Automatic annotation (TrEMBL), chain A:
Domain S-Me-THD-like C-terminal as annotated: residue spans: 167-342
Database matches in InterPro entries: S-Me-THD-like_C, S-Me-THD_C_sf, S-Me-THD_N, S-Me-THD_N_sf
Residue span, S-Me-THD N-terminal domain: 9-163
Protein name: DUF917 family protein
Classification via Pfam families: S-Me-THD_C, S-Me-THD_N
Gene3D superfamilies reported for this sequence: CV3147-like, CV3147-like domain
Signal peptide limits: none
TrEMBL record, chain B:
Protein name: PucR C-terminal helix-turn-helix domain-containing protein
Sequence segments annotated as region (Disordered): 268-345
Compositional bias of kind Gly residues: 296-307, 326-342
Low complexity compositional bias, start-end: 276-295
Domain PucR C-terminal helix-turn-helix: 566-622
Species assigned in the record: Nonomuraea jiangxiensis
Amino acid sequence: MSLLIGGEELGWLGEGSRLFASGAAESSYNLSRDWAGAVVGAGVTLVAPEELLPGTLCVAISLMGSTTALGEQLPGGEEPARAVRALERRLGERAGAVTALNLAAENALIPFIAAAELGLPMIDGDGSGRVFPLVEQTTYALGGMSPTPLALAGASGELIVMETAPDRVEELLRPVVLSVGGWAVAACYPMTAGDLARVLVPGTVSLLLRAGVPGAPRSVAAPYGVRTLCRGRIQAVEGSTRLGSELALPSSPSSIVLQETEGLRRLVRLEAHNEIVLALADGAAVAMAPDQICLISMTDGMVVDVDKAEPGLKVEVMVLKAAPVWHTERGLALGGLRAFGIPL
Amino acid sequence: MNPVRGSGWAAPVTVAELVNAGPLAGARMYGTGERPVHQVRIVDRLSVFAAVAPHTAVVLIGAAASGGWAVEMAMRRAWEQAAACVIAPSSGLSEGSGEVLADRLGVTLLFVDEDPLILAVRVASAASRPEAARTQLVARCATRLADAGASARRVLGVLNAELPGTSVTLLDRYGRYLAGRQSVGGPAGDFTTAGRWAAEVEVLDQEGAVLGTLVAGGSSRSPGWPAVVRTVLGLAVAPLTAWAAQERLRVARDFALQSSLAERLLNEAAAEESEPGAAATGQATGPADLEAAGSGVAGPGVGGPRVGGSVEAGSAEVVTGPSAGERGGASTGGASTGGVFTGGTSTRGVATGGVSTGGVSTGGASMKSTSIGGASIAGADVGVVGLDDGGGGVDADGVGVDSVGGMDADRQGGVRVEAVALGWPVQGTMTGYHIRPVGPVGDAPLAQALITAAVGQVPVLPRSAGWAGWAALDPGRLAARVERCLQTMPWPCAGGVGAPVEGLPAVGESLLGAEAAAFVAGPGTVARADRMGPAELLGALPAGVLRAPAEVVLRPLLEIDKDGTLLGTLAAVLEEGGALKAAERLGVHRNTVTTRLERIKSAGFDLDDTATRLALQLACHVVLR
């Protein structure tokens, strides 16, 4: 039972993709939405991988690098298509569907653009169920899929095809993305529809479509459950010097301290490294990666980025339970606290 | 109690004590630090906490100190294990949230700059031998107190520096702050509440009377600490007693000096006023009419040395008589008047602001001579117009009056110069004040200190069981300052402010007004002579004292006046000045008043006699008030 994403559904998808997405710059999000709106045409078919022939080549599409850079260095428009075509040339095989690496804001829209441009269906699901900062932090990788070969298209016509051991992708990718202008569209994790059906977090795109409908509760976007950890006011944002700052993560560790404004009035500390990975309440750990910890502004209901958190802000701290696969031993190793440098 | 082995000396050291006076000195402590420390445990990862025993000082290193989150989790675990405290290296950690959490969990958190491993060893040593650590502290305090000498400020400085976490204040016997940390404040009883402790030691003066109290307080609940503090306070008593003795001598001397100076100043001014020559104030008659910068004191020895010309000096009331110019060419132009110049007695010259002053001849011991001599600037015969060989000079601003050669000239007028040096007003508009203690009299030097603190640099004279003086302020501002002064006085006092007058000679008059006003004023309030009217005078009547005689005077009337009608009528008639107006005030017919007056007269009062009327009106006022 495939679903067609047209103009209206695209709006819902956009809204839904932002409900728990941090790190999305407003300008780049607006740009991506307009870009998607420009290419939506007759719409994109949303399919479950099981609906495809098991041997169909599926390709994951994602934005790499900085969303802020995307807002500043505008795309030419054909980056997603070029990346997919390059990967197809490398593999000698046509892609039959496009899937998402994760569904946070731009990363939900860029695969949609690729699907619309190439006239391919989009898979209803993604490789994360939430968002992680690294290319290899996906359920695809957990399922044994390799992110490479990987094709990268930059805004000035650059095209890079990369082939390396899975654990070196991030290391090689980062300087390349930086040198092409701070962002690029990647086509990666080439796999068959049969494999994809096994490793993806299913149904997440249609979930966001439902969550993005005006008036839908935010919790619809969290398939495995969401809870409010606390509501409070940010007291301080500190740079953190903890171990693990040498880890290959895009941003530096920081720490957000807030005081609960209700209930026990606990002191809540949120350790962030690219995203919030650990929440302490009065020194006791109350939430941690791989579950996703989100700051939602109590004034406008928008997700507050870690680097936008500032003292005085009133926020709600929400915890989204990660897909079960993240709570397995391998999942914890890839997306748990230690992956973020916290030796717990 | 053996002062060095008081109870509590062998009690386990608390965290606060380690910080206050032990190996953790200089650490930033959050939390009360009240738990005793029995042992030390170095923790490099949080899992070690499972083996931490109660009353352990936990020293965080490595991964366990690798971020705010780690410290917070350590505090949580320390709380669960009932540890004594958590010690973390301060490098790079923010302390704000630790403070909040220390408060929330009741776990003391310490941030240290030194190597935590070295500190751990020292803490372990202090924890195992608490008595030795305390004795060491007392010994250090004794040495530093000996170095501090007899100065309250330095002694209190030593106490507060060596007993951190403890605030020490020296209060006088009225409980007011003298030295040390203001925050302790108030009598000791004020802060023994809510887990705080206090120690106090009386400081006696050289005669064995209570001089004040050393009060120490803190929030630490260490059982041993107050005993240590008391011992150290005891060490500070002797230097404080010595300090007080010195200070008291100096202050008593200073007070005597300034009050006698003020008396002399007033006497001179009064004498000057009464001199015939002085009448010329404001009318320059001397041949050399020298004016010194508008306000200066000038007294040139004018051309006619024995002419007796008076010379106006600015607006001041300075008058010179015949010059004493012959005196070695060095004498001033100041002149003796009335032939009382004696010249022989010198008073001190006072130098102010680098301008040599003081060389003004005074009348010597008699102090009747009134002239203020202007003195020459550099010596005799310096080019000041109209000088005779006596060489009077003119000073520029009326403050620095230069003595001629600084030798024998500092006689008359030195009083005024000293007064100027003290910052007292000596000319222009000034206003007298009077402060009257309502109860028993306190000590004068203290009163002077309080008065000058509140009013400014003014003389303080002992006057009719109170203190008086004058200031160059208008009555309104002076009254405000005097009122502020009354609030700081340890004894209840009333204040009075006189009318503003021009020049020192008239100050006596203003002082009288101030005294009268102070008599009228109630405790804590200030009355102004220039605002005093009949109402204030009546209000000042000692009604309590007069009531009995008043009732005697009025008895014949009261006996026939059952309901008070006649008394009221009498009062109305006397106050309104006639039966007609009294009837209006009482709301009765005139004839009614007349009838009542007849009854009053029949009681034996002759209302036509003015003395009787006054006595009756006074009596009515007192009785009806």
